[in-house]
């Protein structure tokens, strides 16, 4: 997540995209036994994961002058 802090240094960038907001069910090969791809910043029940708080801190950093 550290590289996200550097985006503030590039005024020509207007944003970025979170690829997976929440964990999701999948039948794709390599999916864990739980059946969920665990890539989100919240889990399948929308409980906040560590990445949620890391991203929140990045957003707060960007708001600083």
From TrEMBL:
Top-level division of the source organism's lineage: Bacteria
Name of the protein in question: Uncharacterized protein
Lineage: Bacteria, Pseudomonadati, Pseudomonadota, Gammaproteobacteria, Alteromonadales
